[in-house]
């Protein structure tokens, strides 16, 4: 059974976090180094691994020591997904004072970069004599990385590839149409404005299959749409 970062407590850390602390405690490292190592551990739980472009021998050290990813003060890390090559991405981490800005960008697909900012001292305490207290608020941190970076990037890539996924745009069209039909008209209009896919789906929701006649519902939809465009 896998012991996740978010399941760690002050009494018991996940084995991966213990390895990080044991390894980095022997090195000249900073709060930022610890946070980056923690971030990579969360990515590993989501089936991302550090891409090794060079034959450096010890893969464990490569994964744990974030100092070798630092270039001009920023961390640049290439990540590979274990099973889906299209999900390969790069993580750029830019320290700004006690905050690290994390940018996650797809390598193989032209989609937007996902970004989040993390306060280092909220999650790392190098001055604690208790090893289990070196990392704090791990559930919050893990959820932030997964919810703000990993999951959105996965959904964006799979939507770009037209692969079914857990996001609303990634659901089968029949299911989306069923959901849309249950929304109030005002909510339908707002959702219609978000992307071309929803615009086309809304039109199909109110048109007859023949495409020749239009129902009263469709006329009502068009009226609301015209009003919505002038908001």
Question: Describe it for me?
Answer:
The termini are far apart. Strands 1, 2, 3, 4, 5 and 6 form a six-stranded antiparallel beta sheet that branches. This protein is an alpha+beta fold and 231 residues long. It has eight helices and six strands. Helix 1 (15-24) runs antiparallel to helix 2 (31-45). This is F-box domain-containing protein. One of its GO terms (molecular function) is protein kinase binding. Residues 165-211 form the F-box domain.
The count of helical stretches stands at 8
Judged by helices, strands and strand pairing, the structural class is alpha+beta
Terminal CA distance: 53 Å
Number of extended strands? 6
Radius of gyration: 23 Å
Uncertain runs? 53-60
Give the overall average pLDDT. 83
Percentage beta strand: 15-25%
Global shape: elongated
What is the N-to-C succession of helices and strands? HHEHEEEEEHHHHH
- Major sheet details: 6 strands, antiparallel
Helix content: 40-55%
């Amino acid at each position: 059974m896998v012991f996740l970062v978010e399941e760690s407590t002050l009494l018991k850390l996940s084995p991966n976090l213990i390895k990080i602390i044991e390894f980095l405690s022997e090195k000249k490292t900073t709060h930022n180094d610890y946070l980056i190592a923690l971030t990579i551990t969360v990515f590993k739980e989501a089936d991302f691994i550090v891409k090794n472009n060079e034959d450096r021998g010890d893969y464990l050290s490569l994964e744990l020591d974030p100092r070798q990813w630092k270039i001009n003060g920023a961390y640049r890390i290439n990540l590979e997904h274990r099973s889906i090559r299209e999900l390969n991405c790069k993580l750029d981490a830019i320290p700004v004072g006690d905050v690290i800005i994390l940018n996650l960008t797809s390598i193989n697909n032209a989609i937007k970069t996902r970004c989040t900012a993390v306060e280092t001292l909220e999650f790392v305490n190098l001055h604690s004599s208790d090893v289990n207290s070196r990392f704090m608020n791990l559930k919050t941190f893990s959820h932030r990385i997964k919810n703000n970076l990993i999951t959105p990037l996965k959904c964006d890539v799979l939507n770009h590839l037209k692969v079914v996924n857990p996001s609303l745009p990634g659901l089968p069209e029949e299911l989306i149409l069923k959901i849309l039909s249950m929304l109030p008209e005002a909510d339908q209009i707002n959702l219609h404005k978000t992307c071309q896919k929803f615009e086309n789906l809304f039109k199909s929701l109110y048109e007859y299959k023949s495409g020749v006649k239009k129902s009263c519902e469709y006329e009502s939809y068009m009226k609301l749409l015209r009003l919505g465009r002038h908001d």
